[in-house]
Specification:
Rossmann fold; 12 helices; alpha/beta; ten-stranded mixed beta sheet; single chain; 309 residues
């Protein structure tokens, strides 16, 4: 059974409710039909006529109370709530839905902002980032071709603490969704000082912080990607690494590298890319690419459902 089939199977084991606020997008509507027919989740295609006026007023007031220190005027907030994305994100916050999937018709910035402000951040981490589950066909690397790539969508130039939080969140997702033992590699253009990498000191600190957060996680860096995922190369370049060239969670040094990396893998290796999956929220949410296919929506809902189990 391939990775996507396993994700679908796990989603069916304990059905969760996921809201899709982009009801007007044909891809999302078709995905909702497939999700229901395959029993992956209780999915709600949330339309404007489903908005309760009194609830909306309450949500606007709650939002205003939460961010009154930010000097956001009520008119600005009311305008935000004209989009059902904010309304459904507040519903998810309250537990009326177990998770939210959007982004087919919203920018990443809009989806992340609504999720962060309405659903709220995990107090253990206090950082929103993202990852992709990458399923590479006929690949011996990672976990039979399965990887988690992070961060590929949110943090432009993470510092040491942010890198450690990204790694921690991505590892949790690998365990929860894929049932994998995470093997984390902090990537660079240098392998343990093979070049004078400015990022080396930052990565070393990130590794230390990650070990403080979760001492049992298997992680190492800095390392080039071939030393991270190819055992034969690891034996030559970095024989002392506990990863041994078998990394399955790849932490990119910045957003440019992460975004380029996942798209290269997707296009050149014909890989499936599930995400961006938002990390660090109180409830699971996914930010779809605006170029997503119907099957991408289906898969992201399945992942979101598993994360809510």
């Amino acid at each position: 059974m391939d990775a996507i089939a396993k994700i679908h199977e796990r989603a069916r084991k304990k059905i969760k409710s996921v809201v899709l606020p982009e009801y007007y997008d044909n891809r999302v509507a078709e995905a909702a039909r497939i999700i229901e027919s395959e029993g992956l989740a209780r999915v709600t295609l949330f339309t404007r006529d489903m908005v309760d006026k009194k609830e909306k007023e309450r949500y606007i007031q709650e939002y205003c109370d939460m961010y009154k220190s930010k000097d956001i005027d009520i008119k600005t907030i009311e305008k935000l709530f004209e989009d059902v994305l904010y309304y459904t994100a507040m519903m998810t916050r309250e537990g009326k839905f177990d998770g939210l999937v959007a982004g087919a018709a919203h920018t990443t910035a809009d989806t992340v902002r609504a999720s962060m402000r309405c659903i709220g951040m995990d107090e253990r981490i206090m950082l929103i980032s993202s990852c992709f589950i990458m399923a590479v066909p006929d690949s011996p690397y990672g976990s039979n071709g399965v990887f988690v790539y992070a961060d590929c969508g949110v943090i432009p130039d993470p510092n040491s603490r942010q890198l450690s939080c990204i790694a921690f969140s991505a590892a949790e997702l690998a365990q929860k969704v894929l049932d994998l033992e995470p093997r984390i590699a902090f990537l660079s253009y240098s392998t343990k000082g093979s070049a004078r990498a400015k990022s080396a000191e930052k990565i070393a600190e990130a590794l230390t912080l990650l070990k403080e957060m979760s001492p049992n996680l298997l992680a190492d860096g800095e390392m080039q990607v071939d030393a991270a995922i190819v055992p034969e190369v690891a034996k030559i370049k970095y024989p002392a690494s506990p990863i041994g060239g078998k990394a399955n969670v790849l932490i990119f040094p910045n957003l440019e590298a992460g975004n380029i990396g996942y798209k290269l893998t997707q296009r050149l290796a014909n890989a499936r890319a599930l995400g961006p999956l938002l990390l660090g929220l109180n409830k699971p949410a996914s930010d779809l690419s605006r170029g997503c296919l119907v099957e991408d929506v289906v898969d992201c809902v399945a992942v979101t459902a598993i994360r809510a189990q």
